[in-house]
Amino acid sequence: MKSNTIFISIASYRDKLCGDTIKSIYENAKLPNNIYIGICHQNKYNEENTEHCLKDFEKYKKNIRIINIDHTQAKGPTYARYLCSTLYKDEDYFLQIDSHSKFVKNWDIKCILAIKALKNNNISKKPILSHYPRNYEDSHDFENKYNINEVTYIPDVHNHKIDKYFLYSYSAPHYIDTKNTFIKTILVTGGMIFCEGKFLEEVPYDPSLDYLFVGEEILHSLRFYTHGYDIFVPNQNIVFHYYTRKEEPKVWDDNKNFSKLQLNSVEKVVKVFEQNNNSDCNKILGDYGLGNSKTITQFKNIIKNKYLKDLKK
Q1: Secondary structure, 3-state, 166-192
Q2: Confidence label for 87 from pLDDT (cuts 50, 70 and 90)
């Protein structure tokens, strides 16, 4: 049986760059045969090739697992990530990215060595790498274009804000120089999560959060935190992300009822953050609840004291 295998979760919604993302994954991996991809493919099938994500990837097709859904049946990114997680088959490591991403050379080894370093040096027993990746355009000839200081110049979530639903949401990240060290945070993002795959036994993806967008990351962060996971900003840039994509289709534009449809999930997350103990949260979340290592009160205090700066509701 192979060791150091990686499963990659990709939720793709009518994304023309999905194929480029897969190409970047395999071309830049040190051990491409160890990479397995699970895609929730949400396309407009009467106009788009149902397997355009797989175009020109015959060599690795056996490593790629797909769930095909017509875009009219899509229920937002949180539900799509749950579907992706059902394609996981006990790989050693798990990586979540968006379908419009690019990678540095040897990204797979860099991620694995980072997790091993955090564990072997007794920094964390349950480490996770997560942050908002750098902009897509920064990926062009990145390692040759920039010096080592730029390679370790990483976007990090700086502040939170409170949205109209009184949910914590992330504001724009700022850049920090990690100096090739790991900086601890309590926040995971949707665009990059790397950790050991066995986390799914403790923190499985919740299939009941239909249409949730804002609220996905902060709830996932809370669940990881209370289960005793430690989140670290990567010591160097690994993934690049195409932000905004103004001209590309989005599920909330295609589905004119998206704002109304998300309300049940949004209200569920809001209700969780109104609670002051884990057991009350778990009455709301059921099988997809909080752990017992730390409390929601501790989490909210960190958010308040570290991230909610100059907050005006």
Answers
A1: CCEEECCCEEEECCCCCEEECCCCCCE
A2: very high
Give me the percent of the chain exceeding a pLDDT of 90.
61
Q: Considering only 48-57, 101-110, 124-133, 170-179, which range has the smallest mean pLDDT?
A: 48-57
pLDDT mean over 124-140: 84
Q: Please state which CATH number belongs to domain 6-307.
A: 3.90.550.10
Helix H or strand E segment including 22: helix 18-28
DSSP category for residue 305: I
214-231 burial, b for 16+ CB within 10 Å, e for fewer?
bbbbbbbbbbbbbbebbb
**Integer Rg of the chain from CA:** 19
Sheet containing 101-103, strands listed edge to edge, beginning at the edge strand earlier in sequence: 101-103, 239-241, 134-135
Q: How many CA atoms lie within 13 A of 61 on its CB side?
A: 9
Average pLDDT taken over every residue of the chain = 87
Domain positions in the chain? 6-307
Say how far apart CA 178 and CA 149 lie, in whole Å. Answer: 9
Q: Which residues of 40-58 are buried (b: 16+ CB within 10 A; e: fewer)?
A: bbbbeeeeeeebebbeebe
CA dist 167 and 111 (Å) reads: 31
The pair of structure tokens assigned to 48 is 């788009």
pTM as predicted: 0.91
β-sheet bridge partners, residue 162: 168
